Amino acid sequence: MAKVTSRTLRHYDDIGLLPPAFVGHNGYRYYEREQVLRLQEILLLRELGLGLDAIAEIVDREKDQVVALRQHRDRLLAERDRFDRLARTVSRTITEVERNAEMTTTSVAHWFEGFDPEKQEALQAEARKRWGAEHVDAANAEYRTKGQDWMREQGKVWVAALETLIGHIDANRAPDDPAVQETIAGHHRWLQGNWVPNRESYKGLANVYADDPKFRVKFDKTDPRLAEYLRSAMVVYADANLD
């Protein structure tokens, strides 16, 4: 029955989990619709990883089998969604590993495109307007002391942080989740290679990421959910940790 061995059925009967409808003169156990539905419920709960004691408590508590089956269906759908999210995260990781995590992959190349001299000058002017010439000039001076290898490594750190944040989104973690905040703390440390933002400036940067079209288009190409999620997480971090 339902690809369940007779030995398993005998065991379920012995422990009172699934008594048959009746036992014939020949010693055979006979099961009717009620028992078949109960068996299906038991098998579903086994698939969800529950032990027999827990299953017995659940199936005995819920007498309405339709209600019980709907509850189990919802659990299975939630579990399916969880595995789908995990599969997407693993797939992205596989892709990056197969491509040797090069920053010029199609998924992240847009973060490193289009920085010609004219655009650089425009960005410099805007940065001075937003954060002041003193901070920008100090950051530029710091950059000039770094080599290309350092720049490439910094880019890889940024890309890895974005991938981690997408993983948090896929896992339905709220922006104030400790795991998310740990990632944001890493982002704040990453910025400190050139600039140490305080609460106001870090929240300002969060707004730039989400509201400035030049940044927003890059975030949206990576993942449309990312900019707003990052902003929320950065604001939480700034309010909790920065002066």
Question: Could you characterize the architecture of this molecule?
Answer:
The protein folds into 2 domains: 64 residues, Orthogonal Bundle (Multidrug-efflux Transporter Regulator, Chain: A, Domain 2); 143 residues, Globin-like, CATH 1.10.490. It is an all-alpha fold and 243 residues long. Helix 5 packs across helix 6 and helix 9 crosses helix 10. About 6% of the residues have low confidence. 70% of the residues lie in helices and 2% in strands. Strand 1 and strand 2 form a beta hairpin. The longest helix is centred in the middle third of the chain and has 34 residues. A two-stranded antiparallel ribbon has the order 1-2. Pfam families: MerR_1, TipAS. GO terms for molecular function: DNA binding; DNA-binding transcription factor activity. This is Transcriptional regulator, MerR family.
